[in-house]
Amino acid sequence: MPAITIDGLVFTFPQGWIVEKYDDWAFHQNRFQSIPPGRKAVDLIAISPNKTLYLLEVKDYRHYSRSKSIELTDEITIKVVDTLAALIPAKIHANNSNEKDCARKATQANEIHIVFHLEQPAVHSKLYPQVTNTANLQQRLRQMLRAVDPHLKVVSKNTMQSLPWTVT
After folding, report:
1. Distance separating alpha carbons of residues 84 and 80, to the nearest angstrom
2. Which of 52, 61, 119, 125 is 20 to 30 A off residue 43, Cα-Cα?
3. Which superkingdom does the taxonomy of this entry point to (predicted)?
4. Nearest CA among 109, 122, 117 for reference residue 159
């Protein structure tokens, strides 16, 4: 079963899935990211056997507070849109055959789902405050990315909302 670690969280997907750490792709880092003002990327691309494309962004704020000035909703929206924009040129121009094949399969998807995996401190403190209200964040992201996925999910490892992979 494919497993990928991001920010200390291990994402384990069912057999038969294609899972790539997209922000590590050579195509993204060496070619697409150089387009001004610098393109962004989601953490993971996952493609199920039934041709559903999942774009996953992962943030773990349990031990480190958020320091970026950009709104979290804007940051995620930019990453999703930039990733989708990169998949078409990647399927044509990527030098890495695995990246090219994954991009081709991603662009042939029957459905697209966006999942924002957010870990926040279980106990809120001044040192580690709650970054955001999850329900409000999900509603705002659904509004912003409705054209891509009107049912976008904001999850944590304790609230996976019936997603087909596990996180430990």
Report:
1. 6
2. 125
3. Bacteria
4. 117
How high is the pLDDT of residue 129? 61
Q: Return the CA Rg of the chain.
A: 16
**β-pairing verdict for 3-6 and 153-155:** unpaired
Segments making up each domain of the chain, as ranges: 3-167
Q: Tokens at residue 22, please?
A: 């997209």
Residue 11 in tokens: 């994402």
For residue range 97-137, list pLDDT tens digits in order: 999 999 999 999 999 999 999 998 877 666 666 667 899 99
pTM of the full predicted structure? 0.92
How far, in Å, CA of 32 to CA of 40, rounded? Answer: 9
